[in-house]
């Protein structure tokens, strides 16, 4: 292990959290899990007694040589990133923060990843293990600090994206990666069709691309890797320099595109690679193509059924990021088909028999 300055309050309140969960289980009291509360917009509103996790913070262990860090779920994302950066390392899935109070537990619970996701992997791909507070108020360890096969439920990865509906994340172990030696961001004036063709062409080549987006007549690309490969690709592509902060503004939705007006809601369309533009009545200026075109941000007043039917026909799905109270959809996530819903219900019944963990957060029925 290595000595390091802890950039967040080092406090273990797991016993208190276990007792609160145990009491809720016995009294059948619904709990609303709260960390930094910066992602409350993502999902359905939850009615329940707050279970505050933000105080459970601090870096438990960090081994830069082994590229492994274990951190308490209430630790601020910014504090963890600062500690990793001191050793020239990073969270490779580039989690959005949505605010200074953002916690690493919230980042994993929502399962959201930034612009690097298609090239590096999703949040769950870097979770090695967790300590989880179960419905009975027990603190159990799942997984470990190395990549390995597991038997039964891989609960650590199930927790990524579960929105706190299966248990309470207490500690999380991650695989981290070195920060790339070289970085160059560029933009190229280009129409949408040409941009999608260009991205398909570049995707077949061994180039150090770690982010690609298109909006309003410009293709944006980030190059990361060794000095020679980044320089060679930069010379090959040309274009105008682009500030690296562009990608943070895209991930954290602080870019001007995400300003909503005229009663429009924000949707994320998740589609297979190289999907052509969908036949939707949406102005080109109200669509931002991210992840090389696989993730598309859309500002629209179109109804949920229209968007979801178009996505489903293309092999994808649509998620609403705007709460219903602000004009968004009543059900933000795409309804499950009968087979998948059965598995969801069975899993929820196994891990949360009384429905105390964030009830209704994902779907009204469970």
UniProtKB/TrEMBL annotation:
GO molecular function: glycolate dehydrogenase activity
UniProt cross-references to Gene3D superfamilies, sorted A to Z: 3.30.465.10
Enzyme Commission number(s) of this protein: 1.1.99.14
Enzyme class: oxidoreductase
Domain (FAD-binding PCMH-type) ranges: 5-179
Pfam families: FAD_binding_4 (PF01565)
Keyword tags: FAD, Flavoprotein, Oxidoreductase
InterPro entries for this protein: FAD-bd_PCMH, FAD-bd_PCMH-like_sf, FAD-bd_PCMH_sub2, FAD-linked_Oxase-like_C, Oxid_FAD_bind_N
PANTHER family from the UniProt entry: D-LACTATE DEHYDROGENASE, GLYCOLATE OXIDASE SUBUNIT GLCE
Listed name of the protein: Glycolate oxidase subunit GlcE
This protein's encoding gene: glcE
């Amino acid at each position: 292990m290595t000595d390091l300055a802890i950039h967040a309050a080092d406090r273990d309140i797991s016993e208190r959290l276990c007792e609160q969960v145990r009491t809720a289980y016995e009294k059948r009291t619904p709990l609303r899990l709260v960390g930094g509360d910066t992602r409350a917009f993502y999902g359905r509103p939850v009615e329940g007694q707050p279970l505050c996790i933000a105080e459970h913070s601090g870096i438990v262990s960090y081994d830069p040589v082994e590229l492994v860090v274990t951190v308490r779920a209430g630790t601020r994302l910014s504090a963890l990133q600062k500690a990793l950066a001191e050793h020239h390392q990073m969270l490779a899935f580039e989690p959005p923060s949505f605010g200074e109070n953002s916690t690493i537990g919230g980042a994993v619970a929502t399962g959201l990843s930034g612009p690097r996701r298609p090239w590096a992997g999703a949040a769950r791909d870097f979770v090695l293990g967790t300590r989880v507070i179960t419905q009975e108020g027990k603190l159990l360890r799942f997984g470990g600090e190395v990549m390995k096969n597991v038997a039964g439920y891989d609960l650590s990865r199930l927790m990524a994206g579960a929105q706190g509906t299966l248990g309470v994340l207490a500690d999380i172990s991650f695989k981290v990666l070195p920060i790339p030696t070289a970085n160059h961001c560029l933009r190229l004036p280009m129409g949408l069709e040409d941009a999608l063709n260009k991205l398909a062409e570049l995707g077949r080549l061994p180039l150090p691309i770690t982010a690609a987006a298109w909006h309003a007549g410009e293709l944006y690309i980030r190059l990361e890797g060794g000095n020679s490969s980044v320089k060679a690709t930069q010379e090959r592509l040309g274009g105008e320099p682009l500030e690296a902060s562009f990608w943070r503004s895209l991930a954290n939705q602080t870019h001007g595109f995400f300003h909503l007006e005229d009663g429009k809601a924000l949707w994320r369309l998740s589609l297979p690679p190289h999907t052509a533009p969908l036949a939707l009545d949406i102005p080109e200026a109200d669509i931002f193509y991210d992840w090389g075109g696989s993730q598309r941000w859309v500002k629209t007043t179109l109804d949920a059924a229209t968007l979801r039917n178009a996505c489903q026909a293309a092999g994808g799905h649509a998620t609403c990021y705007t709460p219903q109270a602000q004009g968004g959809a009543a059900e933000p996530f795409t309804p499950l088909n009968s087979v998948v819903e059965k598995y969801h219900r069975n899993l929820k019944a196994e891990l949360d028999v009384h429905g105390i963990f964030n009830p209704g957060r994902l779907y009204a029925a469970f």
